[in-house]
Amino acid sequence: MTATTTKDYSAQIRQGLRLRLDETQLPSGKKYQGKVRDTYDLGDQLLLITTDRLSAFDRHLASVPFKGQALNLISAWWFEKTKHLVPNHVLAIPDPQVTLAKKCKVFPIEFVVRGYITGTTSTSLWTQYNKGVRNYCGLSLPEGLRKNQKLEQPLLTPTTKEAQDRPISPREIIEEGWMSAADWEQAAALALRLFHYGVEVAAQQGLILVDTKYEMGKDAQGNIVLVDEIHTPDSSRYWLAPSYAERFAQQQEPENIDKEFLRLWFTKNCDPYQDKVLPQAPEELLVTLSARYIQLFEMITATPFVFPDMQNTAHDRILANLQGIL
């Protein structure tokens, strides 16, 4: 599977439109509903169910067929590939959309690593830079950068986990008590190590890992552990490598293969920050976006995407696969 050869899964995806998993109701465990994942607290373990919900601009935009499966399995693949770099929370993958994980005390900081200056949201590095910001998260940015340009070296630009996330410098993280200096230094080094490795692996598959975010915490033994997700198209931005240089030289947007595709559509058709009611994403857009999630899964893992049995709903399948765990 390369950036220029894709399979036509449109028939299966259209069939899956009626099977999208928007929410879950399991018989046990305390439920916490996030933007994309439904998390069930089972005591010393967590069940993380990746739904088909898609969020951006801090709100729900649409539900995309097979997105949850692609995301969960991409993340599982990366967790396995990076466990030699940093331990992670994964205990088992009992269903294509479910991760059984050990419970950790998660740091209240997101570790955002950027290899390029880009983005369209109000908090993106390019938006801030284009407005004149030259000091970001304690880092000095040079003059003369262009949108979508590769940075001289990856930048770690952490944000807080608050009602309104905000960029924060390492000094502020320590002074405001978000993390200890020792934990910050170790976690920051791990985040950069993971990103460098992710860039290398993505390049082998014809992809550019543009930027990403990591979440980390401590397990019961006090070890720093990677949690949540890793290098998925929800937590990361990917571009197709073969066309990047030419498109950048011509000041064209890179070919993207992530949810930026949907972000761009909404920014063209409404104000996703201010409008109370958003337009419904066209079915064709959802089919195309689903195909891109599947394409990215196949490109990264070099394995074919296996569609689930569509005779049953995703919720019923998950319940069946979780027998013995719940």
Structural account:
With 326 residues, the chain is an alpha+beta fold. Helices cover 31% and strands 25% of the residues. Strands 8, 9, 12, 13, 14, 15 and 16 form a 7-stranded antiparallel β-sheet that branches. A hairpin with a 2-residue loop joins strand 10 (135-136) and strand 11. The longest helix is centred in the middle third of the chain and has 24 residues, at 181-204. It is globular, with a radius of gyration of 19 Å. The relative contact order is 0.19. The model is unreliable at 1-5 (pLDDT under 50).
Give a concise summary.
The chain has 9 helices and 16 strands. It has helices at 10-16, 67-82, 125-130, 170-175, 181-204, 244-249, 260-269, 283-301, 314-321, and strands at 30-33, 37-41, 45-50, 53-56, 59-63, 90-95, 98-102, 105-106, 109-117, 135-136, 139-140, 149-156, 159-160, 207-218, 224-227, 236-240.
